[in-house]
Amino acid sequence: MGERTRGRRWSAVVVVLAVVVSACSSPGPGAGSPTTRAAGTRASTGAPVPSSACSAPGAGAGSTAAAVTEQRTDLTVDGVARWYLLTTPPVRAGAGPLPVVVDLHGLAEGATLEAMTTQFGPTAQRDGFIVVFPEGTGSPVGWDIAPATSAHPNHDIDFMKAMLDQLEAHECVDTSRIYAAGFSDGALFTSLLACTMAGRFAAFAAVAGAVMPEPCDPGRRVPIVAFHGTADPILYFNGGVGTAALNHDLGQGPAPTTTTPPPVDLDGKGYPANVKAWARYDGCDLHPTDTKVSPHVILRTYRCPPGAAVDFYVVMGGGHAWPGSKLSAALSSITGPSTFEIDATGIIWQFFGHHRLA
Q1: Which of 103, 178, 233, 311 is the most buried (most CB within 10 A)?
Q2: Are 131 and 120 in contact (CB under 8 A)?
Q3: Of the candidates 123, 107, 48, 115, the residue with the CA atom closest to the CA atom of residue 86
Q4: How many CA atoms lie within 13 A of 192 on its CB side?
Q5: Spatial CB neighbours of 174, under 8 Å, sequence gap ≥ 6
Q6: Do 28 and 305 contact (CB within 8 A), yes or no?
Q7: Which residues are CB-neighbours of 47 under 8 A, at least 6 positions away?
Q8: Per-residue pLDDT tens for 312-334?
């Protein structure tokens, strides 16, 4: 924080990433008979759980009668000032408590760039939910992706808890429909939140960075959707970190020399194994169905018990990018090819719509 407890430096990031992307699975809560997920069932049948702000005089679907994007800086966590961007939609009669999406940025990017990348703000204003873009700490700015221990408190997890507490106290929120999404370093942190805060977040989305940290004890089955490009030059599809590309992106080295990427194994180690680890934890059938949803995108779907879902979008030839993002596409010379064959933001929001906390 400020100067982070773990002394995060760009060189240390490479080491931490290398450890995390090789994370193995944890035993699940019990298998049970897998069933095909019914779209929208859980979200449509459960009643909203209003936050404390919903009982305030004049409370409605949001804090104002018009869509608002603002920066909130009045939050101190573990002695350090923290901030986040907040987008609320226009008040709509009868809308009631609103869902929330927390969108976590990548390493060295920050909240503002994440908002530009994912365009969750316009989606929230159109579809009537709240979106939050928190800012990490350190230089380069990022997230503490290491599990908390007695010797290593994770101040970013503390930040997430305090931020949600503040949000629920000031906005009329459906506390059963709060979700976490993230890109790259933000996806690694989202994976950690899936292990540590599954009691606050109903479902998770990890773009270019789905892992299962060790230890991992969510306490329940976890719905998660993941995306990864097979030609990612930074977080390799089958495991490992492209240190030269990462260092270059952080301004710490020359552009990497062009090399022939290793053959892609769709059922191998790395991110296919990471997603499968979540399917194993959730008690899903470990023989997924692969569907070619566009010329260069495969959707791998696991059949899971009620309350769980594990989907994996594999972008063939895709780089370290947010699918459907114009900003990601503009950075393709640095982070590899992007795609507009799918829209990760729309897919994630649709996936979230199927899940709420019981």
Answers
A1: 103
A2: yes
A3: 115
A4: 22
A5: 48, 49, 50, 51, 96, 97, 98, 99, 100, 356
A6: no
A7: none
A8: 999 999 999 999 999 999 999 88
What SS3 class is residue 52? helix
Domain assignment present for residue 308? The answer is yes
CATH of the domain at 118: 3.40.50.1820
Greater pLDDT, 215 or 68:
215
For 74, the 3-state DSSP assignment is strand
Could you tell me the two tokens for 146?
């290491």
Q: How many other C-beta atoms can be found within 10 angstroms of the C-beta atom of residue 81?
A: 12
Q: Is 315 in a helix, a strand, or coil?
A: strand
The answer to whether 77 and 162 have CB atoms below 8 angstroms apart is yes
CB 99 within 8 A of CB 181: no
Domain ranges, residue 108: 10-19+49-352
CB 174 within 8 A of CB 49: yes
Q: Record the tokens describing residue 324, joined without a space.
A: 């459907």
Q: What's the gap between Cα 190 and its chain centre?
A: 4
Task: Supply the DSSP string of 121-148, one letter for each residue.
Answer: HHHHHHHT-EEEEE--BTTTTB---SPP
CB 346 within 8 A of CB 324: yes
Q: Cα(318)–Cα(248) distance, rounded to whole angstroms?
A: 19
Please give the DSSP secondary-structure letter assigned to residue 154: -
The residue written with tokens 């022939």 in the block is 260
Decide if 306 is inside a domain. yes
Looking at the 3D structure of the chain, how many domains does it have?
1
- What tens digit of pLDDT does each residue of 243-279 get? 766 655 656 666 665 556 668 999 999 999 999 999 9
Asked, for residue 270, whether it belongs to a domain, the answer is yes
